[in-house]
Structures are given as C-alpha cells and as structure tokens.
From TrEMBL:
<keyword id="KW-0496">Mitochondrion</keyword>
<keyword id="KW-0830">Ubiquinone</keyword>
<keyword id="KW-0679">Respiratory chain</keyword>
<dbReference type="InterPro" id="IPR039428">
    <property type="entry name" value="NUOK/Mnh_C1-like"/>
</dbReference>
<dbReference type="GO" id="GO:0030964">
    <property type="term" value="C:NADH dehydrogenase complex"/>
</dbReference>
<comment type="function">
    <text>Core subunit of the mitochondrial membrane respiratory chain NADH dehydrogenase (Complex I) that is believed to belong to the minimal assembly required for catalysis. Complex I functions in the transfer of electrons from NADH to the respiratory chain. The immediate electron acceptor for the enzyme is believed to be ubiquinone.</text>
</comment>
<feature type="transmembrane region" description="Helical">
    <location>
        <begin position="29"/>
        <end position="52"/>
    </location>
</feature>
<protein>
    <recommendedName>
        <fullName>NADH-ubiquinone oxidoreductase chain 4L</fullName>
        <ecNumber>7.1.1.2</ecNumber>
    </recommendedName>
</protein>
<feature type="transmembrane region" description="Helical">
    <location>
        <begin position="58"/>
        <end position="82"/>
    </location>
</feature>
<comment type="similarity">
    <text>Belongs to the complex I subunit 4L family.</text>
</comment>
<comment type="function">
    <text>Core subunit of the mitochondrial membrane respiratory chain NADH dehydrogenase (Complex I) which catalyzes electron transfer from NADH through the respiratory chain, using ubiquinone as an electron acceptor.</text>
</comment>
<dbReference type="GO" id="GO:0042773">
    <property type="term" value="P:ATP synthesis coupled electron transport"/>
</dbReference>
<keyword id="KW-0472">Membrane</keyword>
<feature type="transmembrane region" description="Helical">
    <location>
        <begin position="6"/>
        <end position="22"/>
    </location>
</feature>
<dbReference type="Pfam" id="PF00420">
    <property type="entry name" value="Oxidored_q2"/>
</dbReference>
<dbReference type="GO" id="GO:0008137">
    <property type="term" value="F:NADH dehydrogenase (ubiquinone) activity"/>
</dbReference>
<dbReference type="GO" id="GO:0016651">
    <property type="term" value="F:oxidoreductase activity, acting on NAD(P)H"/>
</dbReference>
Length: 96
C-alpha cells in the first residue's frame, strides 16, 4: 500500500508542476520554478524506481547534471531579460 501512495505522490507532483507551467503566468521566474519542480518530481520518481529495482545510481548523476545545466541556462536567460527589458513580465517583450 505504501508503494501506491509514493507513486501517487510523484504523479501528483508532476501534474501540479505541469498545471503551473501551462497556466497564464505574468513572470518568467514562476515558469522557471515550475520547470524545476517538474524536474525535481522526475528525479524523485527515478530515484525510487532505481532503488526498488536495485540498479546503479549513475544515471541519476547524469540527470542531475543536465537539470543543473537547464536551471543555470534559465537563470541566465532571466538575468539577460531583466537587464534588457527591466522586468520579467511576458508582456514587455515580443515572443518572436
């Protein structure tokens, strides 16, 4: 019974992150935080899955490296947008 509640928690985390991501947000920072929440839920899912299957955890390190690179890229885009436009509103710049 515990395993089903753990799987439900991961699925719930993933869908809440997607719901925040697709909702209409004014700030880019909220979108980036929801992406990191989705990545965190996927990481926990892989962690529990690999622990139950008794596999090596080397793939999780690779996943963490890519998620850190994704986070730093998002922050650099956020900083460059704030420097060029003065804020992180989606209405202040063109999406082209």
């Amino acid at each position: 019974m515990l395993i089903y509640s753990i799987w439900f928690l991961f699925i719930y985390m993933f869908f809440i992150g997607n719901l925040i991501f697709v909702s209409k947000n004014k700030h880019l920072l909220i979108v980036l935080l929801s992406l990191e929440f989705i990545v965190l839920s996927i990481f926990f899912f892989f962690l529990v899955l690999l622990m139950f299957k008794d596999y090596d955890m080397h793939m999780l390190v690779v996943f963490l490296v890519f998620s850190v690179c994704e986070g730093s890229l998002g922050l650099s885009i956020l900083v460059s947008m704030i420097r060029s436009h003065g804020n992180d509103y989606f209405q202040s710049f063109s999406m082209l």
